[in-house]
Structures are given as structure tokens and as C-alpha cells.
Specification:
Blueprint lengths: L7 H9 L1 E4 L76 E6 L8 E3 L2 E8 L2 E8 L2 E12 L17 E3 L2 E5 L5 E5 L5 E5 L1 H4 L14 E3 L2 E4 L9 E5 L5 E5 L10 E5 L2 E7 L3 E5 L6 E6 L14 E3 L2 E6 L4 E8 L2 E8 L11 E3 L2 E6 L7 E6 L5 E5 L7 E5 L2 E5 L4 E6 L7 E6 L10 E3 L2 E5 L3 E6 L4
Antiparallel strand pairs: 1-6, 2-33, 3-4, 4-5, 5-6, 7-8, 8-9, 9-10, 11-12, 12-13, 13-14, 15-16, 16-17, 17-18, 19-20, 20-21, 21-22, 23-24, 24-25, 25-26, 27-28, 28-29, 29-30, 31-32, 32-33
Length: 458
């Protein structure tokens, strides 16, 4: 398939594209210092397989012993957890030290980090921009890659990208709000390929644009495109961008899929706009399907599936609730399902030692942090502590949560009750981007800035 000449509009987009720029500039950065952390394995025997270890830092950056990279959405395990230990969990009144902060353009996607570099995806004026900076000094811009966009959100939210970049195999992959899929070189920012896939596959504009993050499995990039005529899920060859297979008529969601090993078989697990869809990643062959979406037309699914052993957990708001489904050789087995246990809006729940921790609730008022039993859905505790619809990462037996009003909190991981050990306001409303934790640094983003907190305990 020759995608270099797919219509006049696509050609015009490429002609206007701004190539990568290698330069350094200052954007109000606060300096600081760092140190290292330790790592550990994840909880479940058959949980998500971590991608290739990218934790080695380059020669020109300080190496943090035991630190982990965060190369894709929700981290190496794709489940919102980090194996780093020795983190700062007893905070002074002013909170952890700020390493650096800087302004960024519009957008909601979380940054990613690998090999001492931080990559974020934002909109500056009428360009979507993939930008790479030194992870320890956000003013040190290593490269940028920009291309034009005219996306307008139909509900009045900002026009920036919704999804996170993915770093894999020396490349960076992004999926913009208009549905433009781009691959650039991780070292230089030079473009390898680009496709306006939503335009090509006649995908109707989602309520909030396109928002799922690219997922790499072997030589394929997997994406819930949401197109008609069998283009609900599309697999692209990661080095060329060519379509390898497509399947289903499922609509697009904002949920990023996962790939897991089930009984020695690799399976791609999607929560599409219509429900659970499990396919063989190499071929696109459908293996399991389970309708799970709201009857409310104006609704959205955003939380990533949680996979433990052979059970998939799905959750959403808009009167959907949650379901736990076992993937058996003979089909799906409904373990439990109800509306009341958990309603994840956009933050993905985190599994630990038989329990699931997550944010329940669609609106800021009434949202609460809670813990449920993974096997039964029984609510073990609920806490409404004013964080609103928070997002979080789990590491070193604690949650590091960022509330939508800009409060960051450290909370113990325990099924007995909610124990908050510290809280400080660090960003302005709204904060709807999940935090990332890498090499002891907690990276936080709102609509116009990135701020980094040093969680190094030593």
C-alpha cells in the first residue's frame, strides 16, 4: 500500500509539515538535583509483559541505580506501577523539592521517558509538536518535530493531543487529536513516516477527538482507529506505517489497549467504544468479545483494561460500572459485574495483592478513591478526600496521586483504610493527565505546564 500519495489533503498536510529542529532554549526552568532508586517485579504471574528495558541512561546524564524508564502510557508494565523503591514518602509541609518546571502547549497526554530523555506531545499555535528534552533539565531541548493541525474540540476543550507518545526500538510514535499517526526517530526527531489514518479510514470525529496511545507488539503498531468497513482495529507495520491487517467495526474509545500472555499465547486486549475485544496481535483474529458500553450516546470509555492471571477487568462511568471476565479456552466467564463497585472515568485502576485501587465517579463532586476486592468486587473502603478525579502511579508501597485541582498526595497502599501521608498544591486546575514516575522523578502536567518533583529519599 502506497500511503505517500493518498489524496490532496494528505499531500497538503505533508507539504506544510515542519521538520525536526535541534535547538536549546530557556522556558522558565527551576534547577535541582537527583539520585537513584531500585526496581522490583510486578504482582501477577500472567500480567502484562514489560517491554524491552530502556533504563540505561546516556553518558551525559547521571545514572540512577535501579531506576526505571517510563517509555509508554502507564509505564513499562502498562499498568500504572513502578518497581522503584527508596522514594520520598514522608513529605515536608512544602512538599517534595521541585526539580524543574516549564511551560508547554495545549494537550492532555502524559509524557514518556527513556535513556535520559523526556518526550511530550503538545499543540503550539496550529501545530502538533513532538518535543524531546533532557529529562533532568526541561530547558534543554534536544529536538522538535511539528506538523499542522486544525482540530477544534466540539465541547470547547483545548485543541491539543489527548494521547501519550510511545518510545520503542529507537522510534517515537504519536497519535494526534485529528487522528494523524506519526513515527519519528528518537535520537534526531526526523520523521520516518506519517499517516492521517482517521482521514484515510473515514473515522467520524470522536466526542473529544482521537485519544488512544499507540501500542507496539513485535513489528506491529496496534490502534483502535474506530473506522467503518472493518477498520475498528488496525495493525500497522511499525517501521513503514503500512497496514498489515484490520478487523471489526468497533468504534474508537480513549482506552489504550494492552498485550498479555494467556496460557502461553499473546493476546491484544482492547476496551473499544463498544466493549471488550480480544484479538490475536499477529493476525487480528477475534478471540473474545463482550459488549460493555453505556446506553448514553454522549459517553466515553478511557480507562485501560486491567489484566491479572486470566481475568480482564473493565470499568467506565456513564452508568456502566465494572466487570471482571475470565478468558477461558471455551470462552468468556463472567466472574462478577455491577454498577456500584467501581466506575473509572479516565484514571486506570491499579492492582496490588488481590485488590484493586481506583477512582470512582464521573464528576468532580462525588468522586472518591476506593479499594475493592478483585475477585468479588466487594468495596473494602471508600475515601472522598477532595482530590476530585485523581490519577496516580503506584510505587514503593504508596500511591502518588495528582488531583484535578492540582493537589499531589502520597497515600499508603493498604486494603484496610485510606491513609494519606502528605499533600501539597503544585499545579493549577485542570489537571487531567496521569503522572509518570521515572528514576525518582514524578512528572506532572496540566494544560499549560510540566512540573517535576524529586522523590529521591537520600
Amino acid at each position: 500500500m502506497d500511503f505517500e500519495s493518498q489524496g490532496k489533503s494528505a499531500e497538503k498536510r505533508r507539504a506544510k509539515s515542519v521538520s525536526s529542529v535541534s535547538r536549546r532554549h530557556f522556558l522558565g526552568v527551576v534547577g535541582g538535583s537527583l539520585a537513584g532508586l531500585a526496581s522490583s517485579a510486578c504482582d501477577a504471574d500472567q500480567s502484562i509483559d514489560a517491554p524491552t528495558d530502556l533504563s540505561s541512561e546516556p553518558n551525559n546524564a547521571t545514572v540512577f541505580e535501579g531506576g526505571e524508564d517510563w517509555p509508554n502510557f502507564l509505564g513499562q508494565r502498562r499498568d500504572g506501577t513502578s518497581g522503584e523503591t527508596g522514594l520520598l514518602t514522608d513529605w515536608p509541609d512544602e512538599g517534595p523539592p521541585v526539580l524543574w518546571e516549564r511551560e508547554v502547549g495545549e494537550g492532555y497526554g502524559a509524557p514518556v521517558r527513556a535513556n535520559g530523555r523526556l518526550v511530550f506531545f503538545h499543540r503550539v499555535d496550529d501545530d502538533e509538536v513532538v518535543e524531546c528534552v533532557d529529562a533532568l533539565d526541561g530547558a534543554d531541548v534536544l529536538w522538535k518535530h511539528a506538523y499542522p493541525t486544525d482540530y477544534v474540540d466540539q465541547y470547547g476543550y483545548n485543541g491539543g493531543p489527548r494521547s501519550s507518545p510511545t518510545i520503542e526500538g529507537g522510534k517515537v510514535y504519536t497519535y494526534g487529536a485529528e487522528g494523524v499517526l506519526t513515527c519519528v526517530d528518537f535520537e534526531t526527531g526526523d520523521r520516518a513516516w506519517q499517516r492521517p489514518v482517521n482521514e484515510e479510514y473515514n473515522v467520524p470525529q470522536g466526542f473529544f477527538g482521537a485519544g488512544t496511545a499507540p501500542v507496539i507488539e513485535d513489528n506491529l503498531l496496534l490502534l483502535n482507529v474506530g473506522g467503518p468497513d472493518g477498520a475498528g482495529i488496525v495493525a500497522f507495520e511499525k517501521t513503514t506505517g503500512e497496514t498489515v491487517w484490520k478487523t471489526s467495526n468497533d468504534t474508537a474509545s480513549y482506552s489504550t489497549p494492552i498485550v498479555a500472555t494467556v496460557r502461553n499465547e499473546r493476546l491484544a486486549i482492547f476496551h473499544t467504544g463498544d466493549g471488550l475485544l480480544v484479538v490475536e496481535p499477529k493476525t487480528g483474529k477475534e478471540r473474545y468479545r463482550y459488549p460493555f458500553r453505556s446506553q448514553i450516546r454522549e459517553s466515553a470509555i478511557a480507562a485501560t483494561p486491567v489484566f491479572v492471571d486470566d481475568i480482564v477487568f473493565l470499568s467506565a462511568t456513564y452508568e456502566i460500572g465494572a466487570v471482571a471476565l475470565r478468558l477461558t479456552p471455551d470462552g468468556l466467564e463472567e466472574v462478577w459485574k455491577n454498577v456500584d463497585s467501581m466506575q473509572n472515568h479516565w484514571a486506570t485502576s491499579v492492582y496490588h495483592d488481590g485488590n484493586l485501587y481506583g477512582m470512582d465517579g464521573r464528576h468532580e463532586r462525588g468522586s472518591n478513591f476506593r479499594c475493592i476486592d478483585f475477585a468479588t468486587g466487594k468495596v473494602l473502603w471508600t475515601a472522598d478526600k477532595g482530590l476530585g478525579r485523581a490519577s496516580f502511579v503506584m510505587a514503593d508501597s504508596h500511591f502518588f496521586a495528582i488531583g484535578e485541582r492540582g493537589d499531589v498526595a502520597v497515600v499508603e497502599v493498604t486494603p484496610t483504610n485510606y491513609i494519606e501521608k502528605g499533600r501539597v498544591r503544585v499545579l493549577e486546575y485542570p489537571v487531567w493527565t496521569p503522572p509518570i514516575l521515572s528514576h525518582g522523578i514524578l512528572y506532572l502536567r496540566n494544560e499549560g505546564s510540566i512540573k517535576c518533583l524529586d522523590l529521591r529519599a537520600g
